[in-house]
Design brief:
Layout: E1 3-6, E2 9-16, E3 21-25, H1 36-42, E4 47-51, H2 70-83, E5 89-94, H3 96-107, E6 112-118, H4 126-146, H5 148-151, H6 153-156, H7 162-167, H8 169-180, H9 184-195, H10 205-210, E7 215-220, H11 224-236, E8 240-245, H12 252-255, H13 257-272
Parallel strand pairs: 3-4, 3-5, 5-6, 6-7, 7-8
Antiparallel strand pairs: 1-2, 2-4
Length: 293
């Protein structure tokens, strides 16, 4: 198995295809296998790289939660790229991976051709913050006490997952089975070290205002924990565009793979062609008439 080293932690990776690199960064409840529909599609024209985050076998599972953090997760993307000799890439991340992708654009802008940030911002809204922290702490303890197969069952049918279950029961069952195969220790440490300690999207406002990397925010319209943070990113970062997918929950790449591939492909093609432009400042005017009036 191929591994990249990140500060002494081995990260399992896969690469498929040739061309401009795209690095896919998975969500908390999934792994490299969650990007299969994207790899099959994009590897026809691009060099696709997927990797398992630390804590997700066959990547190493550090025993201490101190070995997990938002910055470490961001640095792990760079470590995989350096190991593969990739100077710049399009970065595509979902949920936890979307958060890492956004931070990658902030901390490693010269290594990012573009950022696609799907379903990021969970736990950011003030009215949901306490519940997020309570749920995350409870889930971490359930994982240690009950193990993956039992502890993950309520998570897989959460408010932003039932859309997937209703649309594609077979695909949802495969997703739930993959999640149940993960390391309980790795999943618990990821919650404690990354999810519960990362800054909210709103705390990133100064950095988002400075961000120049072309950024595509994607959210399902029924993903209530991430829709408002996605809109906030769009309003704060002039380098961003926003796509909202109707009748969809959290992991749009799984729920609507063909649509996801199309809108991501169009965005990446726009960047690669040199035709992408940031938001025109004139669109920020409060009047519906000329800003000069």
């Amino acid at each position: 198995m191929p591994f990249a080293d990140s500060q002494g932690v081995k990260l399992y990776y896969e690469e498929t295809g040739r061309g401009t690199p795209i690095v896919f960064v998975h969500e908390y409840a999934d792994d490299v296998r969650g990007w299969e529909a994207q790899v099959r599609h994009f590897s026809r024209r691009y060099r696709c790289v997927t990797f398992n985050a630390r804590g997700y076998p066959p990547s190493d599972v550090p025993k201490s939660a101190a070995k997990y953090s938002q910055r470490i997760a961001t640095d792990d993307i760079a470590a995989v790229m350096r190991h593969l000799g990739i100077r710049k890439a399009h970065i595509v991340g979902c949920s936890m991976g979307g958060y890492a992708t956004l931070h990658f654009g902030i901390h490693y802008p010269r290594m990012a051709l573009s950022l696609t940030v799907l379903g990021a911002g969970f736990g950011s809204d003030a009215d949901k913050r306490r519940q997020f922290m309570r749920d995350s702490a409870a889930m971490a303890q359930r994982l240690i006490d009950l193990g993956m197969r039992v502890a993950t069952k309520p998570y897989a049918v959460g408010p932003s997952r039932v859309q997937f279950q209703n649309k594609d029961p077979r695909g949802w069952r495969e997703f739930a089975a993959r999640f149940a195969e993960h390391s309980a220790l790795g999943a618990a440490n990821t919650l404690k070290g990354v999810q519960m300690r990362r800054p909210t999207v709103y705390q990133l406002a100064p950095a988002l205002k400075r961000l120049k990397v072309p950024t595509h925010i994607i959210s399902g319209d029924e993903d209530d924990n991430c829709l408002e943070p996605g809109i906030f990113i769009k309003r704060t970062c002039a380098a961003s565009v926003l796509s909202v997918v109707a009748g969809s929950g959290h992991a749009v790449n799984l729920e609507e793979p063909a649509l996801f591939n199309r809108i991501v492909g169009e965005f990446i093609a726009l960047v690669d062609s040199g035709r992408w432009r940031p938001q025109d400042p004139r669109s920020k005017g409060k009047s519906t008439l000329s800003n000069k009036g």
